[in-house]
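Risk register update: the risk that structure generation would not scale has been downgraded. Supporting records follow, first protein first.
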Amino acid sequence: MDELKNIIRDIPDFPKKGIIFKDITTLLADAVSYQRMVDLLSHRYIGKKIDKVVGVEARGFIIGAALAYKLGAGIVLVRKPGKLPSETFKKSYELEYGTDTLEIHTDAIEKGERVLIADDLLATGGTMAAVVDMVSSMGAELVECCFMAELEFLNGKNKLPADKVFSLLKF
């Protein structure tokens, strides 16, 4: 795991002063590291009968689509408002300074489907908590929320179901 962690670069003072941004593009650009990360995540879910993988805009699409392919599941996109063409279910949630909204197609998940939610990074957990609420409201069975990486010091895991969070890399 250290090999994967070490390929992720730190960008100081981005997006604002005092923040050290974990830039995953270096891992994604390295074919061997990207394949290893996808393989390690997907092996956790093989045989768990995942119907759909939900990818959260935008970097969650990169992780979610690869997992869906490996697991033989469908991919469902959660997007910012106005980006999905059909009828949507909206969920607004609190941010540190204000609110944000996400959307999912109302017909993207059927009641009882087993769903894995995927994103690149777990930070404060607010966005993922909103996605968990959306998926649960649609009648899905949440298998787990999976992340390529987690910033443990932000305690985002505390906003999610306790036994439903997996992070491959922890910082």
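Supporting record for the second protein:
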Amino acid sequence: METVQNFINGRISESHTQRFAPVFNPATGEQTRQVVLSSAEETAEAVTAADIAFPTWAKTSPLKRARIMFKFKALLETNMDKLARLISSEHGKVYSDAVGELTRGLEVVEFACGIPHLQKGEHSANVGTGVDSHSLMQPLGVCVGITPFNFPAMVPMWMFPIALATGNTFVLKPSEKDPSLGIVLGELLKEAGLPDGVFNVVNGDKEAVDVLLTDSRVQAVSFVGSTPIAEYIYSTASAHGKRCQALGGAKNHCILMPDADLDMAANAIMGAAFGAAGERCMALSVAVAVGDETGDKLIEKLRKHIDAMRVGPGIVDGPENDMGPVISAPHKAKICDYIQSGIEQGATLLVDGRSLSVPGYENGYFVGPTLFDNVSPAMTIYKEEIFGPVLAVVRVPDYQTALELINHHEYGNGTAIFTRDGETARQFSEDVWAGMVGINVPIPVPMAFHSFGGWKRSVFGPLNVHGNDGVRFYTRMKTVTSRWPASLRLEQHTSSFTMPTMD
């Protein structure tokens, strides 16, 4: 059986561990390969490679680093089909969604290509008589990314393109559930000209993670995952003197106002709730309908859309499915337990996805789109992140009640409002306690030149990912104040007849 190894110092590094984790095709339930669970010593080898490579890479000009990012971008585009199929086979998402994930990651690579401008610092002349000040945005050293299963391409590319472009070296620890893509990204970076040791991939579980969180050579840690793990990552990394950004869970609400375009809103909510089988930290899992009439109309439209949904494997020969399987059998069981808890706690189950069976894929990890009505804030399906295709409809009498629901939830990742009224939309964008806000946009994920991050217990650490926050996170500022005394000028002149370059 194929074994997914590590990628250390520019090459596949065969592990000597005796511990492995199975990797499944979620659509079939079949094990397709296994992944090494690296020992502490093997994890430290990846850190060593990154640490040795750092001094030379940090001194490489930003322009040269950017040119490697440009080549990496071209290789991603050339290999888009291959990468998307690999994502679909290990994660389960439909092919077009895998392409979309790669495209959003590619946008961060494009942003990182502008690093000569983004990292140039500031300058002030004559802050005092004959005294100048300028700032340097210098790299940190070895940086680490610990990433989740739901976006094996996009989330790592939220991190390492900016880290590498700013002069850091990097160790990626991908999810053991879909680890293969990380290795391919390492190989593409090497093909683009990245020096050995600058980017490394170490596969593993908590044993590997704890090495990365405590090794004194690691300077910064980026993480995306559930809130309990994010809190552990942040507290452990911080206790060991590391800079840390840890993005956690979410329970994203949208408000549906009575004046909204209901056809547009229902379509948007469907994609946001059930795309990628709901396994997105920006998934809309709660629709707050203002007024019973609004709620009735929404339910009617959602049920029609759900009835028309195609659920099946991510890659098919005919028309593409709308939704694929969830990641694993245990996760499917967890989602089904949440659905049962909603029934037991008094919510109205309108569409039950637990009994879905896909012909020819009976052993796949499929959960159909599930719709609850009359959900209250006391229910578990309202309070907790399900991370599956389950949409809860909450009915409230007015806008203010809807706003207070969102603001008092422990998570504050993303939110949206559907309305035709500009005043309501503007007020909502100012008053809601969430990091990313959509106005008639169901999943308000910022473009790469803005920063992604939530509020409250959806994030730990002061700086978000990509955009200007990403550049700030992966650099530290040094301010130089200088005065030059009068001296003899010794000038040596030589003639040059070629165009000067920044090599």
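The two ends are 46 Å apart (CA to CA). On this basis the risk owner (M.S.) recommends closing the item.
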